[in-house]
Amino acid sequence: MPMSASWNSLLRRRDGSSAVEFTLLLPLLAMLLLGVYETGRLMTQWTLLEKNMRAAGLYLARTPLPLTAGARATAERLIRTGRPDAADGAAPWYARGAVPSIATRSVVIDGTSYDVIEVGAEVPFAPVAPLLASALGLSGIVLRPHHEQPHIPY
User: Fold this and answer.
1) Structure confidence at residue 8 (pLDDT)
2) How far is residue 120's CA from residue 25's CA, in Å, rounded to a whole number?
3) For a surface tag, which of 22, 42, 65, 77 has the fewest beta carbons within 10 Å of its beta carbon?
4) CA angle, corner 40, sides to 26 and 85, nearest 5?
5) Using a CB cutoff of 8 Å and minimum separation of 24, what contacts does 124-130 make?
6) Residue 116, burial from CB neighbour count under 10 angstroms (0-12, 13-18, 19+)
7) Cα separation, 31 vs 136, whole angstroms
8) Nearest to 145, CA basis, from 99, 112, 109
9) CB of 80 within 8 A of CB of 52?
10) Where does residue 57 rank: exposed (0-12), middle (13-18), buried (19+ CB within 10 A)?
11) pLDDT tens for residues 40-74?
């Protein structure tokens, strides 16, 4: 059998073509799967952070003004952990350079002044796979949720 005939028969065979196609598509499927996973983590982190900030805002709304250092520390623990009494145990996503902000301001509506508690945070998103996240455009994301709560006077 001449050499060109054996090459032609080898090129016409379909054995293993599925394995080659799977090998070519596997990196794309892995990127898609990890991208969906990272996006889900981002949304979960955002939701938890928003929930914790709402809890901190509600706590501060029932605290006498001006806010004391103890009230601010409790609110920061609420933002960080979701619990007012947690000495440690910050959420792993919060420990990476997060910056909480707590402020009060007055708003005048129809000639009446109301105090408003503003709670915010800047939390950098730390992906599981940083190189893949940068390829998908998910690197350098900083979550900046914000919550405003009217103060409830005594």
Assistant:
1) 67
2) 43
3) 22
4) 140
5) 124/96, 124/97, 124/98, 125/42, 125/45, 125/93, 126/93, 126/96, 127/38, 127/41, 128/34, 128/37, 128/38, 128/41, 129/34, 129/38
6) middle
7) 8
8) 99
9) yes
10) buried
11) 888 888 898 899 899 999 999 999 989 899 999 88
Which positions ≥6 away from 101 have C-beta within 8 Å? Answer: 118, 119, 120, 121, 122
Residue type, 121: A
Tokens of residue 75, six digits: 């609110």
Average pLDDT, the chain: 82
Distances (CA, A) of 82 to 23, 93, 114, 143: 44, 13, 27, 17
d(CA 118, CA 105): 8
DSSP 43: H
| Residue listed under structure tokens 């900046």 | 144
Which residues partner with 101 through β-bridges?
120
| C-alpha–C-alpha distance, residues 81 and 75, integer Å | 10
